[in-house]
Amino acid sequence: MCGIWALFGCDCSDLVRCKEALKVAHRGPDSFQINNLEGLKNSMVAFHRLHVVGGIGGMQPMILKKYPHLSLLCNGEIYNYKTVRLYCAYTYRNDNNIKRKCVTSNTLTRPVEPENNQLLDGVFAFIVIDTKQNCVMLSRDSYGVRPLYYVTTKAGVLGACSEVKGLCELPVEGGIRHFPPGHYMFCDIMKNGKVIPSTPTKFHRIDEPPAHLQYQRLELENEETVKRNIRYLFSRAVDKRLMGSRRVGSLLSGGLDSSVVAALTAQKLKEHGVAEPLQTFTIGMNSDSTDVIAARKVARHIGSEHHEITFTLEEGMKAVKSVIFTLETYDVLAIRPSVPMYILCQHISRNTNNILIMTGEGADEVAQGYLHFLEQPTPEDGHKESMRQLQQIYMYDVLRIDRCTAAHGLEIRAPFLDHAFTSYYLNLPADMRAPKNGIEKYFLRAAFAGANLIPNNTLWRKKEGFSTGVGEEGTSWFEHLQQHLEGLVKKYRFARASQSYTHNTPRTKEELFYRQIFEKKF
């Protein structure tokens, strides 16, 4: 997890640029660098580094020895870096493990083809600047695990940043947009530094295997073989995400997804000879929250060093303003679960030395885990809904977990969004992946049955929303929140909501409360 920022064609002062670039400093608390680009007028890039792999040589922008006119800013991890390195045969000016972190500049140094982005097995958002050809390229991984926003104007300005807050006060006209996952974009830069506007081009569809999986040949001959392949692919997905020199922790709610991830992480760390036990982390409003009780049992089973964090309604309310600024949204469904997640990540950052955080995000979208999948008329409808949610996950669960961890200098690893695993799972027959006997994620659960990886009742625990699982005394966290805000927000303010906010008018006092905070921040 790092913070990248770039601005081209803007006539604003260096002071204004630096001020904007520093707004994402939390994403890379270890070091910072800001550069004017030699040979490009009105161009500047900045990088905030979180030290995960490599020493001092890991600072960016990176420059290829063979192609010194190329500069690279990348927030990401490339898991097949050895294969790509052999394919490209490049060496680096700073060769201290940079090859492990980002090797994405092959996309400009070879003939420019969309397929080159598909060679990368990993998560990434990157910007490549070519001062010889006077062009810039942006690219983002297939599921948008690493964030990237951009703004372009008719006046020739291009801005890009890991978060909206690094662009929102620039003196430019034009809306800030998500850079779409699985896309790249080339823009030519004129002599005066202005950028010729372009549009993103898709290089990968999530229902198609990317090019780096062209040699993956796994059998589909029978159900038991498929289950074995799922265990194998997911175990590999976890293992490759342990790359790095910082301590690994795991979020644990006691549900299927986080429990399988934590169990395999603990297993793999032992196989790699790591002496320290895996640390797992759970949050709830008290020690009797359903998630806390469930996670405690899993932690005992896998032998992790377990941490239980509790929070009060008052502590949750105190965090709301920070959460809205962190998420850059007033969306109720994003804010509610993000409050306990934000508090949990804050605790991890302040009280432990864990930097890499394993998480179960993505499982519900890939394996049809939400309860509404039980209501899909046919398996094919369930598949379509799964694909729809995966195409939008970068705006919801992935955004939430990225922002809550990044706000505290942590980095997420999400093995359920691994290319090899998702490509295989999503291409299984639709009826195999559909819920069965009223059980969501049935086939994923069945694949791990009998492995003794996690307790059996955890393996078959019914899906429970995060905001519900962290609640107390039969009342979910969001119900506590709603009740409190109902009395906090004045009736007359709510009555005027339609006049104050004509766009997306708040429909509840809770929505109004969040909207007021958002408007003050942005």
From TrEMBL:
Recorded hits in Gene3D superfamilies, A to Z, give: Glutamine Phosphoribosylpyrophosphate, subunit 1, domain 1 (3.60.20.10), HUPs (3.40.50.620)
Q: Where is the site Important for beta-aspartyl-AMP intermediate formation?
A: E361
Pathway this chain belongs to: Amino-acid biosynthesis; L-asparagine biosynthesis; L-asparagine from L-aspartate (L-Gln route): step 1/1
Report the InterPro entries cross-referenced here: Asn_synth_AEB, Asn_synthase, Asn_Synthetase, GATase_2_dom, Ntn_hydrolases_N, Rossmann-like_a/b/a_fold
Name the Enzyme Commission number(s) assigned to this protein.
Answer: 6.3.5.4
Q: Can you state which reaction this protein catalyses?
A: L-aspartate + L-glutamine + ATP + H2O = L-asparagine + L-glutamate + AMP + diphosphate + H(+)
Q: Which residues form the active site?
A: C2 (for gatase activity)
Every Glutamine amidotransferase type-2 domain range: 2-190
Give the superkingdom in one word. Answer: Eukaryota
Give a GO cellular-component term. Answer: cytosol
Protein's GO biological process: L-asparagine biosynthetic process
Against SUPFAM superfamilies, the record matches this protein to: Adenine nucleotide alpha hydrolases-like (SSF52402), N-terminal nucleophile aminohydrolases (Ntn hydrolases) (SSF56235)
**Swiss-Prot/TrEMBL keywords:** Amino-acid biosynthesis, Asparagine biosynthesis, ATP-binding, Glutamine amidotransferase, Ligase, Nucleotide-binding
Q: Can you name this protein?
A: Asparagine synthetase [glutamine-hydrolyzing]
